[in-house]
Write a structure and sequence with these properties.
The protein is α/β, with parallel strands linked by helices. It folds into two domains: 29 residues; 172 residues, 60s Ribosomal Protein L30, Chain: A (2-Layer Sandwich), CATH 3.30.1330.60. It is built from four helices and seven strands, in the order ααββββαβαββ. Strands 1-4-7-5-6 form a five-stranded mixed β-sheet. A two-stranded antiparallel ribbon has the order 2-3. Strand 5, helix 4 and strand 6 form a beta-alpha-beta unit. Helix 2 crosses helix 3 and helix 3 packs across helix 4. The longest helix has 26 residues. The protein is globular.
Length: 203
Amino acid sequence: MFNSVLSRLAMGGLLASSMLSGVALAQSSPSSPSADQIINSLKPTGAVSDTTRGIKPLAPGDTAVAPAPMATPAAVQATSPTGIHTTPPTANLNVVFRSGSADLTPQAITVLNHLGQALTSSQLSSYHFKIVGHTDTTGTADKNLALSQQRADAVKNYLASKFNVSPDRLDATGTGESDLLVPTPPNTPEVRNRRVEIVNLGQ
């Protein structure tokens, strides 16, 4: 009986500790993926169909970035020598922009420094990449389309100037609010939708 009471108290303590830990994680800021994680997400590993490895932005409460399946626009799908459509390696990075702005925040620069290290690594230095800018639903669709292009251009310019990545290796384009990572109603600020997607286009 006494042991049973002790066991229940111990379990209660563990549960309380777990709940407090969850609160702390939810309040902590997301960490950016390392250069090695980005490299692993973007380097080709052979033909892949339907799904691909990828880095997705962290949701509130997450503490690490792990490879996860994610959809890739049909426009950037590749075809293997066998004629089977494959999905190229993709990294979906949480490059933080202020609402309505294409200016890089300190958080964005941290992520892009890791991306620059990855793109200039021996594993990826011979590849070309598509930089896809995205927005949330705040504002009009036309303004968001232009803003997403400005964000993609900002990333490309930063990588070219800071890491000497040849502009010929980078194709910047914007898709506005047409491909939301987190579905939201119109005029909803959502930082995870203000992101940049990096797609390996091959050599």
